[in-house]
Amino acid sequence: ERFTADGLLGGRAIVFSDNARGDIAQTYHYDFWIEPPTILLQTALADTLRRAGAQKVVTPDLRIEPDFTVTGKIRALEQIRGNPGAVRVQIELALTERAGGKLLMFRSYGAEPRTTSDGIREAVAKMSAAVDQIYSEFLKDIAAR
Hints:
The chain contains 2 helices and 7 strands.
């Protein structure tokens, strides 16, 4: 399923907050994701599952009924500017059995790697690495069930 996100996280503008005022999220005026994060993270998860050897990975665009459904909600995907700087990524993922609707797994995953500057390139690279780490943990959880 396509991921969901509330507020600023659902848009294409990259979200940031300042260390000194961490409770206020803002968006950049000139720095955007190529697609909304809800689509980017869904696509990245589908690619990760395929690389891991999943036999059949389908997205809603294909209009094929899957055996299992993964749903995700983006809770945080932002740059934290300041000293120290960081990025924050938090995603809730659920695996359900399509036939009976049985919830097989639900977990909130997160990562908050530090950054060495307030540059957007480093922030995006760290967010990407954090998403890869989260998806790796998700694959381990699926394998363990």
